[in-house]
Design brief:
Keywords: Signal
CATH architecture: 3 Solenoid
Shape: elongated
Number of helices: 3
CATH class: Mainly Beta
CATH topology: Pectate Lyase C-like
Number of domains: 1
Protein name: Parallel beta-helix repeat-containing protein
Radius of gyration: 24 Å
Helix content: under 10%
InterPro entries: Beta_helix, Para_beta_helix_rpt-2, PbH1, Pectin_lyas_fold, Pectin_lyase_fold/virulence, SO_2930-like_dom
Number of strands: 34
Structural class: mainly beta
CATH superfamily: Single-stranded right-handed beta-helix, Pectin lyase-like
Length: about 475
């Protein structure tokens, strides 16, 4: 937030005040825009070996009344339209829907100083370009998640809905709808917070929806809380190549993946509800990305249920290889912990732990330094119910019908020290959950339901420091 900054003039923004800024912005975007529906810089994605982007309601003051557009003079000597009301006390700028919402909103954000709070009134902002936030420690706040709507249905410029490049940015209490690319994206930033935000696409299982709702990548200090994502064609809530992550109290449904932690280290994922996705929660480590060796994600007290939606991911991406009906999937990631979760009604399986393997539909890794094995994971004290009742292909062919609550592909690193207990994927006190090692790397020849080799414990992961 703003800390001890000196108070400055607070500002109303409309299409009149921000028109010149908005026009310049539109011309700039027009020069570099196109039909790309996601950024193409080298950041995380679920595309193997390539890069691309492809709750509780809060309030913030009150909407000003009156529409008087007589000019008044700001303390900086410029003129601005008056509206007949005061800016909310904790806002440095206040934006209302207008005839030119891009000019008004982007103008306020471009004029904002580090530490400012830019507030948006109730109503719908119609936006046809990507909105950018570059100031540090800035807060962009709506009047409430279901009250302030940023509608990108007519977007034809820019890759995403909102693009964040400043550190310490908080977005809070509004909804983003119908972006052709990612909903809200942050690249290589520190201390980014998504709070009480919804990102939505109305069409169900549509490949025309954006890839990600939230997309912080290459970042440290990521917080996503009290938020919702509906309809993403990759992951609703995604964090990639990042550290020090907290994802809590969110809702994700009708996405391919509800939540995905990818090539990241030190995440806490807690008290989320994921349902009606293809898969509930993914913990992936993929080759070909600038940051490797993702590990140590702690998932607890999540409800992961009825994730049986069709997979409408883009062919060739890692997420497109996930079979419908998966609760949790750990892919080539180490030392993760799943505890005290409710895992039910996922028709393929509750938890599947697999190595990165072409045999499950993934592209060749083509990276000699990539560790393809999933090792040292700890699944304990979870509740399993009605999983695996109608497994999708190819799991049905390798695991049978019904499939077990917990599946492991049996693939072990041949170069690792034999019988190293730290590398075992341990199961402990998961009630009546059943288990199958389907021996993928042995050609399915030695399948086993014997729990004894995996009945063990690892040291539990610490809470995220901020938790």
């Amino acid at each position: 937030m703003s800390g001890m900054k000196s108070p400055g003039p607070r500002r109303f923004f409309s299409s009149v005040r921000a028109g010149a800024t908005g026009l310049a912005l539109s011309l700039s975007l027009g020069a570099c825009g196109g039909d790309d529906k996601g950024d193409t810089d080298a950041t995380g994605d679920s595309t193997v070996g390539t890069q691309g982007s492809d709750g509780t309601d809060g309030t913030a003051g009150t909407e000003p009344t009156g529409t008087d557009t007589d000019a008044s003079t700001d303390t900086d000597g410029s003129t601005a339209p008056t509206t007949g009301a005061e800016i909310p006390a904790d806002c440095d700028a206040f934006v209302s829907p207008s005839d030119d919402d891009v000019a008004a909103l982007q103008g306020a954000l471009l004029d904002a100083a580090d530490g400012d709070v830019v507030c948006m009134a109730e109503g719908t902002f119609s936006l046809n370009t990507e909105i950018s936030i570059s100031a540090n420690n800035l807060t962009l706040r709506g009047a409430g998640r279901d009250l302030t709507i940023l509608d990108f249905s007519d977007q034809d410029l820019g890759a995403n809905g909102i693009k964040i490049s400043g550190d310490g940015v908080t977005v809070q209490s509004f909804t983003v709808k119908e972006t052709p690319g990612d909903g809200i994206r942050g690249d290589d930033v520190a201390d980014i917070t998504f709070d009480d935000i919804s990102v939505e696409w109305a069409a169900k299982e549509s490949m025309d929806s954006g890839a990600y709702g939230f997309y912080p990548v290459g970042s440290t200090g990521v917080v996503i809380r009290n938020s919702r994502v509906i309809g993403a064609r990759d992951a609703g809530i995604y964090v990639g190549q990042s550290t020090n992550i907290l994802v809590e109290d969110n809702e994700a449904y009708d996405n391919v993946a509800g939540i995905e932690i990818e090539n990241s280290t030190g995440a806490t994922v807690r008290r989320n509800h994921t349902y009606n996705n293809t898969a509930g929660i993914l913990i992936f480590n993929l080759p070909g990305l600038p940051v490797q060796d993702g590990k140590r994600t702690l998932c607890y007290e999540n409800i992961v249920e009825n994730n049986n939606g069709n997979n409408f991911g883009i062919p060739g991406t890692a997420v497109a290889a996930v079979p419908p009906g998966v609760g949790f999937m750990i892919l080539a990631a180490d030392e993760n912990e799943l505890r005290d979760n409710i895992i039910r009604g996922n028709r393929t399986t509750g938890v599947i732990i697999v190595s990165y393997n072409e045999a499950i539909g993934l592209e060749p890794a083509d990276d000699p330094n990539f560790d393809q094995y999933a090792e040292g994971n700890y699944v304990h004290d979870n509740s399993f119910e009605d999983n695996g009742m109608m497994p999708a292909s190819p799991v049905d062919g390798v695991a049978g019908v019904p499939a077990a609550d917990v599946l492991f592909d049996g693939c072990l690193d041949p170069d690792a020290m034999a019988m190293d207990p730290a590398l075992v994927n341990c199961l402990w006190q998961n009630g009546d959950a059943d288990y199958l090692n389907f021996d993928l790397c042995g050609g399915l020849a030695n399948k086993s339901t014997d729990l004894e080799p995996v009945t063990c414990q690892h040291q539990t992961l610490p809470e995220l420091p901020a938790g």
